[in-house]
Structure formats: structure tokens, C-alpha cells
Amino acid sequence: xxxxxxxxxxxxxxxxxxxxxxxxxxxxxxxxxxxxxxxxxxxxxxxxxxxxxxxxxxxxxxxxxxxxxxxxxxxxxxxxxxxxxxxxxxxxxxxxxxxxxxxxxxxxxxxxxxxxx
Length: 117
Known about the structure:
The chain has about 120 residues and is mainly α. About 85% of the residues lie in helices and about 0% in strands. The chain is built from five helices and no strands. The chain has helices at about 5-15, 20, 25-60, 65-80, 85-115. It is elongated.
């Protein structure tokens, strides 16, 4: 398998930036990994906070353990909280993922051409 394909698959399936690290483009890989990690951390911490709030309401008896009631509460929380930051974090993660795949493939192709010359 070519380096370009390996790098693109690593960035697509493991984590954005790992393909760049394989290609020894450590600065680009580290920047993509750091940005992706920060976005993923924010998204996961927000999801965990919401899950804890809902579970506390269920344990406290404020909310019945009913799927419809929980879904209603989740949808109301999404509107009530700062959805802008969640959208920015989601967009940043998706962009890093796409850049990681496409750019690692492009860099890998360039390195293949340079090695064949």
C-alpha cells in the first residue's frame, strides 16, 4: 500500500493528523491533532454534563425514566444552552478531519513523486 493511502486512511479512521505524523510532517499533524482533540474534548464534556444533569433529575424524581420525556428535555437543553459553541466545535472537528484526510493524501502523493525521481 502506498504511503499516501496509508496516511489518508490513518487520518480518516484513527484521528485527524495521524497521517501527517506517518509522513513525518510533525507540525501539521500536531496542529490538526490538537485542534481536533480540543473540539472533541469540548463536545464530549458538554455531552457528559447534559447526561449528568438528566440523570440527576431522574434520580431526584423530577423526571420520569421515559424516553419521550428524556428526549423532550434534551431538545429543550439544546435550545437553551449556547448552541453556537457546540456548532463551532463540531465544525472545527469536521474540517480538521477532512483536511487531515485530503492533505495527508496530497502530501503522501508528493513524497511518492519525489522519491521516484
